[in-house]
Design a protein that fits this description.
By secondary structure, the protein is of the alpha+beta class. It has helices at 11-17, 19-24, 32-58, 64-80, 88-101, 106-119, 122-142, 150-231, 237-267, 283-292, 311-331, 370-381, and strands spanning 296-301, 336-344, 348-355, 385-390, 396-402. The protein has 2 domains: 6-192, no CATH class; 281-405, Heat Shock Protein 90 (2-Layer Sandwich), CATH 3.30.565. α3 packs antiparallel against α4 (64-80), α4 (64-80) packs antiparallel against α5 (88-101) and α5 packs antiparallel against α6. This is histidine kinase.
């Protein structure tokens, strides 16, 4: 934001806005604006000093020797204005007592007090500013004005000092506000980027879970029918044709699902134009597919109106039943699998997939358990819970409860 316009901002503000420079501890270089402001302050101090020289010549209370010393002190004070950025506190403290005895250093003293209010905390400004205000009566007692009453001169000088301090504190507060807004904008950008990355990560995790749930079911069906053809080469032609048709259909469906998921990944956002997501009403079709693959599946569907189940809850229930059937097909082939779905609005939806222990030894399947982990996360996101594990009789059970308001 500051690129190309750095000359417009004070170096102190750029130092606070640039974290690299601040961490390195380097003094900020003067910008073009700093040179203009410093030269203007120096010129203002000189103008005030020259005006004071003319007033000294007309003041009968000031001897000629003291006037010369006053002018020398004023010239040194004006030259010291160039050091106000490096040592604001030291310069203000040094010029405070000099301004009592030197008329020509009054402008430099006010500029030093203003710089102190801009660059240092209030506790320093309060001490130095308070001393300046307290010395005003002493100054006009030592250097009385010929044309202005004492009380009026004291009040005017005191108000001028307070105004300079207030102006400096206002500038400091404005700079701090600008730094605060810049930090807030930087934090907001960082948080927005992190939220976008988190949303993208969650979306990809959801797509990965969907890919696992869909493809695992399709590929296990394909594996079952391919295994039947392998171990029964003497099967009747009609049965062989039916198994080949199921293999072709399962491969086509798996390829279609994979193509849709890859399309979503390439687009970078959810695709709502694809095929509709399965709901609880599609559970009968899922069980029919499993039966066609040779599984023994019993469906106990006690939900009177499956279409009334919310789409997110119904989709989660479908995926749980699908994963349970897929796991039973892989780890307990040939067993009787029972799928039970019960529930009503207000009490929630309960899904239970149970299978007894398989007969004989089943070889381990690599990568097992990932689908159940994803289902547990999916159920938790919907506000429900999922439990799974072996039963006392040696079988396996997946049981989930999902909220249905």
């Amino acid at each position: 934001m500051l690129t190309g316009r750095r000359w417009f901002f004070p170096s102190a503000l750029l130092h606070e806005l640039d974290p690299d420079t601040a961490r390195a501890g380097r003094r900020p270089r003067r910008t073009a604006r700093d040179w203009v402001v410093d030269f203007s302050c120096f010129l203002l101090a000189v103008v005030v000093g020259v005006t004071a020289v003319e007033a000294l010549a007309d003041n009968p209370h000031v001897p000629d020797g003291l006037a010369v010393v006053d002018q020398v002190i004023g010239a040194l004070a004006c030259a010291a204005v160039w050091l106000r950025r490096r040592w604001p506190l030291g310069l203000a403290v040094a010029l405070t007592p000099l301004s009592v005895f030197s008329d020509t250093s009054g402008g430099a003293g006010l500029i030093a007090l203003f710089t102190l209010a801009v660059h240092r905390p209030f506790r320093y400004v309060a001490w130095v500013g308070g001393v300046n205000v307290a010395l005003v009566p002493l100054y006009y007692w030592v250097r009385p004005e010929a044309d202005i009453p004492y009380l009026v001169a004291v009040l005017f000088a005191g108000l001028l000092t307070v105004a300079v301090v207030g102006w400096g504190m206002f500038v400091r507060a404005k700079r701090q506000l600008m730094v605060s807004l810049r930090d807030r904008a930087r934090r907001a950008e960082t948080e927005a980027r992190l939220r976008a990355e988190q949303a993208q990560r969650l979306a990809r995790e959801a797509i990965a879970r969907e890919m696992h749930d869909v493809l695992a079911h399709r590929l296990t069906l394909l594996s079952v029918h391919a295994g039947a053809l392998e171990f029964r080469p003497d099967a009747p032609p009609a049965e062989t044709a039916r198994a080949a048709g199921v293999i072709r259909e399962s491969a086509h469906e798996a390829l279609q699902d994979l193509r849709e998921i890859i399309g979503v990944l390439r687009a970078g956002e959810p695709d709502d134009t694809g095929r509709p997501q399965p709901t609880l009403a599609a559970l009968d079709t899922l069980v029919a597919e499993s039966r066609e693959a040779g599984m023994k599946v019993s469906l106990d569907h006690r939900v009177e109106d499956p279409a009334a189940v919310p789409s997110s809850v119904g989709r989660t229930a479908y995926r749980i039943a699908q994963e349970g059937l897929t796991n039973a097909r892989k780890h307990a082939p040939g067993t009787d699998v029972t799928v039970t779905v019960t529930g009503a609005p207000g009490t929630g939806l309960t899904i239970r997939v149970h299978n007894p222990p398989p007969e004989g030894e089943v070889p381990p399947v690599p990568g097992s358990g990932q689908g159940l982990i994803g289902l547990t996360e999916r159920a938790t996101l919907t506000g429900g819970r999922l439990e799974h594990g072996p039963t006392p009789q040696g079988g396996f059970e997946v049981r989930a409860w999902l909220p249905w308001g």
